[in-house]
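Aim 2, interim progress. The first record below pairs a target sequence with its structure tokens.
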Amino acid sequence: MRIFVLSIILVCGFPQIAAAADDITCSGKPRSEYAMSGSNSDNSLDPPPGSGATQIDVGFHLISLSDIDVIGSRFRFEGYAEFEWCDPRQAFDASTEGRSKRALFGDKALTNIDDLWIPDLKLANSVGAVTNTARRMEVSADGTVLLSGFFNSVVATRFDLRRFPFDRQSFAIAMESFTFNRDVVRLRPMADMVGYDENLYLPEWQFKSLTASTEEAGQVRDRVPFSRVIFNANVEREAGYYLVKLSVPLTLIVMLSWSVFWMGKESLGGRMRISSTAFLTIVAYQFAISGSLPKVAYLTLMDKVMIAAFILIALSALENMVAVTMSERNPGGAAKIDRRSRWVFPIAYVAIIAIVALVGGQA
């Protein structure tokens, strides 16, 4: 008897199920199901219904980078972003409306669609106001929502200056939802919508690539982590300025300090004046460099080259005292020390620079 009753129920209900199956939205479920679930709630507050978190596809095209502030650990960028997700509650009959998409522009894009749910995406590392220069909202007949626009802002980043001035940096632009954690919203980059302007130009930097990744980040505003998508602008510093303005003059100053090895029986005062002048000149160069870098706890590659120069000049001053002191009772021995120093100091300087360049900038 029970089997007979269940059979009647299934037969009577089957036409309704079949008819609903023909009315499919972007999620693959009948629209009637979502109409019932959203009838007693505000769609602008409730995420799209369904099992699991709503998937947000994020695309980003970098247009420009500017105002790179190493001391302040920040930079400004301008870009174009696209956010795409599925909200079956926004599905409509294309044949009835005579169009397959609803499109709105500017401020109307977020205010003129009734009960439109927005994932509330923000720049996670922004340190300034985000300026939107253009905005577009498209809602397809199947419920697919596409929000796009141009925007710019100043964001914070971390600089790794261990290999300065031959360093490479990765400028991160992080996006996440301010309101909805990973259980509600999950972000992922669009594989075909991550790129940069071919004419992008950076003074002092050479742009290499733009990469995308995802992570989960804990925030004080919720116990559950938030899904985050990160676009990394990978750049390499052009070291020509520092080689011409600093490295070459520094090498010449160190070489000048070696001139004392050819001074023979010159007084200690005369030889020490040359070493002192070279030492003070390098100190001035160090202050010139430190003024354009943050006060980091580690040594940069340029710092290590400076320290090597200090040590060699200090050793040349020590050689002055030994040679002048010996010249009074052993002129031959003093001359021998000077002759050997003419080779030992240049070889030591080249070796130190090579070691610093190869391993000195590693973490």
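The second target in this work package is listed in the same format:
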Amino acid sequence: MADLNPSRKRDKALGVTRIIFSIVLVFAVGLTGCKSPEQKEKAKQAKQAAALTKKTKPKLREENTDVDFQAFVGRLRKAVAARDREMLKSMMTPDFGYKLQPEMAGFDPSTTGPGVFQYWDQQGLWTELEGILSEKFVPKGAFWVAPPQFANEAVNYDGYRAGIRRINGSWKFAYFVNG
């Protein structure tokens, strides 16, 4: 086999060319990885648009930091989301209020007792109940109520509201009414 370089010494020009080619290649790779100002602006706008359209879960910080209250509200939310009637029944007061009824002399406190689940099914109130229970609970009289607007006397709140109260040392779901 014939050698191209009969003196068997390295060609110095070839070594310098390799080094220069390697340096140029490193710069080319480095510069193509940099973003232009237009690309940076587009990326920033895309990130802002994604942040605006992203659904965030509400932070459910209750003013009542009792561990048993927090646990009760968590179980209540899960039971409503799962439509677990047996669990809900065990968490409700026996005279659970679910419908305000107008009478001639003011309002009857509420329609109470059995029939609540049928009423919620007929009226399609399960999603409304989930929404109200996702709100923060605040104190109002003997109850902890959601949404907080209902407890604020300055606001004339007349939408759906839920109330929880402690009975004989344990928390109970007392009412979910509108009006």
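The longest helix spans residues 12-32. This observation will shape the mutagenesis plan for the next reporting period.
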